[in-house]
Amino acid sequence: QVQLAESGGGLVQSGGSLRLSCVASGVIFRFNDMAWYRQAPGKERELVASISSARSSKYADSVKGRFTVSRDNGKNTVYLQMNSLKPEDTAVYYCNMPRSSRSMDYWGKGTLVTVSS
């Protein structure tokens, strides 16, 4: 059974930094693409960043230059380094392992990031 477990969320002041981690279990991690999504109150879930099994990364325009996604296959972990945080980054951040069918994606339970102004 595949499980994704996020950690690292919390309260931070505007301009601060946080690093989120997501540990995957029950899967051969290195063969899988990974992604981070977020959902702010009253808004739809949106893709923040993704990293392929070949370590190719993509970012939402809103976080380019501030967030960095990386992975450590030896630790079955994907990271999201978030710098220069803004109040609009406040959201629950979810770890995602995409499948061939979106409905079959694996998701973590999420970790809350709150950025105060």
Write a brief structural summary:
The protein is mainly β and 117 residues long. Helices cover 0% and strands 50% of the residues.
Structure report:
This protein is mainly beta and 117 residues long. Helix content is 0%, strand content 50%. It contains no helices and eleven strands. The strands form two sheets. Strands 2, 4, 5, 6, 9, 10 and 11 form a seven-stranded mixed sheet that branches. Strand 4 and strand 5 form a beta hairpin. The model has no long low-confidence stretch (mean pLDDT 97).
In terms of DSSP E residues, the strand content is over 45%
Low-confidence stretches: none
Question: Total strand count, please?
Answer: 11
- H/E series: EEEEEEEEEEE
Nearest-angstrom radius of gyration?
13 Å
Shape field: globular
Key structural traits:
mainly beta; 7-stranded mixed β-sheet; 4-stranded antiparallel β-sheet; 0% helix; 50% strand
Indicate the topology.
Blueprint: E1 3-7, E2 10-13, E3 18-25, E4 34-39, E5 46-51, E6 57-59, E7 67-72, E8 77-82, E9 91-97, E10 106-107, E11 111-116
Parallel strand pairs: 2-11
Antiparallel strand pairs: 1-3, 3-8, 4-5, 4-9, 5-6, 7-8, 9-10, 9-11
